[in-house]
Amino acid sequence: LPDEHPEMRDYARAEGFRSLCAGLFITPAALAHRYALSLDIDTLVLGVKNREELAECVEAAEAGPISAELMTHIDAPVGR
Known about the structure:
This protein is mainly alpha-helical and 80 residues long. The chain has helices spanning 6-13, 15-24, 28-37, 51-63, 68-75. The protein is 61% helix and 0% strand.
């Protein structure tokens, strides 16, 4: 896809998040799941394609919410 395509812009914008995940030795999907579970929400709908992805989401849920400090580090690279 060309660089100006919306999906490519989103992918480029998420580079900081992917780098943060690599430094924490956690997959982006698992950290995103834990981030979402740390928000004040009532329902979280997961998009999983297979049992492996489901297992990763269950592990992330069992790991619990992340700290406010880590949430700030996640928000910073994506401009939130």
